[in-house]
Amino acid sequence: MKHSPCLNHAHMHAHHHEVSEKTVLYLFVAFIIKMILSLVEIIGGLIAGSVSLIGDALHNTSDALSILIAVIAFKIGRKKADSTFTYGFKRAEIIGGFVNLILLFISGCYLAVESISRLWHPEPVAGTIIIWISILAVIIDAATAKLSHGHASDNTNMRMVFLHNLSDALGSVGVIVSGLFAVWMHIYWVDALIAMGIAAYMIYQAVASFPHVVRILMNAAPVGLDLAAIQTKLRQIKGVRDVHHMHVWHVNEHDISLECHIIADDMRIGHIAAQKLREQFGINHCNIQIEKCADQCDCCLSH
């Protein structure tokens, strides 16, 4: 097939609110604090003989690493595009989110195995140590979850940080409950049961979030975006004769890119189409190639 000459390209960009440098600094401080907390929990868990406290420490360690990965991803994502990475580095945040999911899933599986073993063979635990360390953990986890909550709805990494820390806080509450059972009733199998619940939550969150991240990495069309409706809207623009070779994908969490060919005589249609895509579909980066064809050319006859 003979290709029509490219006569015009229309580009349209829009910018979204990003995680601030101040928030990134706070996250790094939270990473240090959570690593210290994890060390305290591991030591306390070994002394107390508590698998739920050690499990909470593993969860905290995984989440601390997720915060560090998020911080690194945010820093890399702010780098400007170059001749090699022409789209820039914003997808680093998605890659960071993907690594976080893997860490969460592996930690959850390990904790599940350990808790099942301890559930069949309960051992005495020092409830008082468990309770006080877990109270400290709840305070730290809740504060870190609050820090990341503001961006959790529109950023995969921040959503992972928020969910991890929220689950940490809830898990620590569960560990407190297991400590109370140990102190008041000398019932020790609750410790393993709480650990199993923490493990199940970790695995569930990893599996539930996995498809969204993979779709972005695989350049899939954004969920909920009707490609047929987009083509219909473009074809309704006065002067547009056809729309083809359309591709839509996520560059990162927010930025949606679209490229297509439009057969039209008026070069201004590219800019009109780009504006409609931005306003009606939230597509903020468009590469629209305008093709000017004769009525009987191969391009027109093929559509």
Q: How many H/I helical runs?
A: 9
Q: What is the CATH third-level topology name of the largest domain?
A: Alpha-lytic protease prodomain-like
Largest sheet: 4 strands, mixed
The portion of residues forming beta strands comes to 5-15%
Number of strands: 4
Radius of gyration: 26 Å
N-to-C series of helices and strands: EHHHHHHHEEHEH
Mean pLDDT: 78
| Shape field | elongated
Number of domains: 2
| CATH homologous superfamily designation of the largest domain | Cation efflux protein transmembrane domain
Q: Tell me what the CATH architecture of the largest domain is.
A: Up-down Bundle
Q: What is the CATH C-level name of the largest domain?
A: Mainly Alpha
Describe the structure.
- The structure is a single chain.
- The protein is α+β, with helices and mostly antiparallel strands and 303 residues long.
- It folds into 2 domains: 6-14 and 221-301, Cation efflux protein, cytoplasmic domain (Alpha-Beta Plaits, 2-Layer Sandwich); 21-217, Alpha-lytic protease prodomain-like, CATH 1.20.1510.
- It has 9 helices and 4 strands.
- It has a 4-stranded mixed β-sheet with strand order 1-4-3-2.
- Helix 1 packs antiparallel against helix 2 (51-77), helix 2 packs antiparallel against helix 5 (156-185) and helix 3 runs parallel beside helix 5.
- The longest helix is centred in the middle third of the chain and has 30 residues, at 156-185.
- It is elongated.
